[in-house]
Specification:
Order of helices and strands: HHHHHH
Low-confidence stretches: none
Number of helices: 6
Structural class: mainly alpha
Mean pLDDT: 81
Length: 172
Amino acid sequence: MSVNEKIIIKYLDIIILECSDINLININNILFEKGYFNPTFKSKLENAEDIVYAVKEFGQTYGYFGKESSGGYLKLTKEGVAARRIKGHNKYQKSLLKSPITLYQKIYLIFFTAFGFFGFYKYFQSENLKIEYNSIQNDNKLLKEQVNILEKRIDSLNSKVNQFQITPIKKE
């Protein structure tokens, strides 16, 4: 008979939390002596034996129990002790999935990255602005020189016009 996983976890938590000695755990003793099982009928006894076997296998699969000793006792491993400290299988499994950084660290990381990129952008943007400013300064000098040359040419042409003094012909 297969046993529901929720039932297995329920009894596994009972065993992990209520065992008095983590080096000598007998699943039968904990569940029967503390009244979690009260099999008065043979079918209930068989169901209890299935649950005990399923809990033992489940606990060993997840690494909560070490190998069974010759006397039928189990020992809690580091994982079992951690699950006991955290108060059960489900809470222990959730603790294993927790993010390695806290919410505060995530927020700090976002701001740090954003301001880092902003600073990087501003540094290179100012370099580009300096280059553009120097380029515009050079263009301005060249244009002033060209204006001076053109003004000189205009003056020379005006002087030639004045030199010839052409008078327009009047129509009568």
